[in-house]
Amino acid sequence: MEFRALVHGLPAKTKAVYTLERSKPVRHSHADLHQDVRDAIARLQGWGVRRGSRVGIYAPNSYPWLVHDLALLDIGAISVPFTDDFAGAVNDDLLDRYNIALLLISRDSARLFPDRPAHVAFLDGDNGAVRALERPASGEPDEDDHHSLAFSSGSAGGLKGLVISRKGVESTLPPITDILGLRPDDRLLLFLPMSNFQQRNMCYGALWKDIDIIITDTAKVFAAMKALAPTILIAPPVLFQMIHADFEKLPRWKQVLRLGLGSLLSRLPGAGLRLALARRLFPDFHAQFGNRMRVLMTGMAPIRRTIGQFFARMQLPLCESYGMVETGSLTFRAAGSREFGSVGKPLEGVNLSFRDDGEIIVHRDRPMTLRYFQCAEGENERTFIGDGRIATGDIGRLDHNGNLFLLGRKKELIVTPGGYKVHPEVIEQEMNNCPDVAHSVVCLRSGSTHLTCVVDLVRPETGGARERIKAHAAGLQSTKKITQFVEVVFTDAPFARENGLLRPNLKIDRKAIVARYGA
Asked: I want to staple 359 with a disulfide (CB 3.0 to 4.6 A). Which of 63, 355, 365, 389 is the partner?
């Protein structure tokens, strides 16, 4: 795929972009989208945006967000979407720091710039005299290949800045869209912030494949599913954990009955027949997805095996993908796979190798990211190691069938006072198999001789939950060989974006959690 061909080919497309405005579905045909993009291109160029100009975007998900993103792509300008991590810091000092010529904001953010300087414009409203700032060129020899500057936050906290490659995106997107098996009647729902590059990337794929897109936000995701009936949902594990937690609130006899019926359905031939029967047997479960859902896909963080098994029995099996903004999507585990602990097999064009310590090294002809422009000292050299190879920082292994299993992050490795090396994520995955656990984070407190596990409860009010979790922790298989006692510490509030314990992309913020509960 090529971005210019993508934008200019929109009039020939037949599908649409849908949003939910004041609880009502709004349809924007791809032909309308093309005209809106052309109008946005004219406005932006009239404001002084040129090829290579850096244009910041700070706004919630919306149709105008997508319109302006595509317009910037066609111009050859470099978008710089600011994530929620920048809340309270979006000002002229920030624009100077990142050499921003023009900032696009939503009308709801007008208070950030009460004097409305000429270099700040609304992407969803009328504007007066707008003029981009004159900024010096970066002088980087590969600037023509710059798609955008993106920010990524990991579970250990801290923001990285990544230079996204146009050619890299064009090269790495087709393998994942192809393996998803997109059909003409598909409708893809996206709800994580569009400042998250994966969301924009899947928009490009859906436009290229000419399928419907639904753009909403986290607060409206269930309303959007019921109103707009998507067929494909890409979401972090936390959303599926929430749905599974609702199932576990049912009386025990209902849980057993549903799982039993789901097990019987799984023995029937034909995925279409199984899904049709499941919609009749489990109407409330399928209705929350809009009753047309056929593909659920997760990634971004590990998901517990029990949740994968549950969705398989409900006849909406979870697909999994593993990837990084640095590399693009790398693997895919299809819905029919029963390798629930695996993230699947490498995609076409992805070559994996392993260092002696198990770190995964990726080789692609054109990775998605050229380099970091903001990172810890030495991280560029440790990650981008030459010849198209990228060190992921993840520890993993391939089984005899070529399925990739992730063991944890290299930098999160814990060395106990006894000299044992522990991957906390392995213990956390086993802890998370306890139905009472929403999230867990394992750490080693300073000066301690034992591991500590911080636990966020599914239902804090449930009697006996804490005792069951402690008993579960005492019997962990993952800690037996190191003869480690695991102290369980319970949170005083659920992990959430609002209290800083979940990142904007709904991943856990390991650094913040350890600072609050494990210090």
From this structure: 355
